[in-house]
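Handoff note, outgoing to incoming analyst
You'll be picking up this chain. Sequence as last confirmed:
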Amino acid sequence: MENNKIPKQPHLIASYFRVGQLLHWSLILFVLESWFYWVQFEASIQKSSLLVMAFWMSCFMFSFVHIFLVIMDGWSRFQNYKRAKDLFFDHGFSTRVAEMYAGSKCQRNAAIVAADELGYKDEIVAFYKKKGVKWYHYIPYFMTKDPWFLFRNYFWERTFLEKSYTPKYNFRSMSLAHAI
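Most recent structure output, in case you need it:
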């Protein structure tokens, strides 16, 4: 970053919600689905066959488990954001850094938010566009390349169990210091 001058930085909580915007909407959806499926399951206990009860319980379990998976995914993407922001700050916009986060819509969004907060949004968006990434590329690329991804450690570690990352810089205080 030139002379360590950075644009005004949002609060970390605002960045967290920007990074995981898609995931937070999914979380709301899964909570509502879980509630709906639970209501249907409870109603089926009195009136339905075991097969109908099993159907509604399966739907409930699917949605309920996804609540926790989405929360873990959001936390992992926030770790990606913090790391990407440090890397962009240290090296300026770098296609190597952007490439590290090109694998999924959520990872790309984490890198885009990090780059945007440092003034590199146009560069990273142009890079992903040049790579052929479209707005509707929601399914992570590794899922289409490796049908056994659920049984791979990299999937679980990179998607839900990303290690906690402590940023090297306090960007908010740095931007406030330059504003004075």
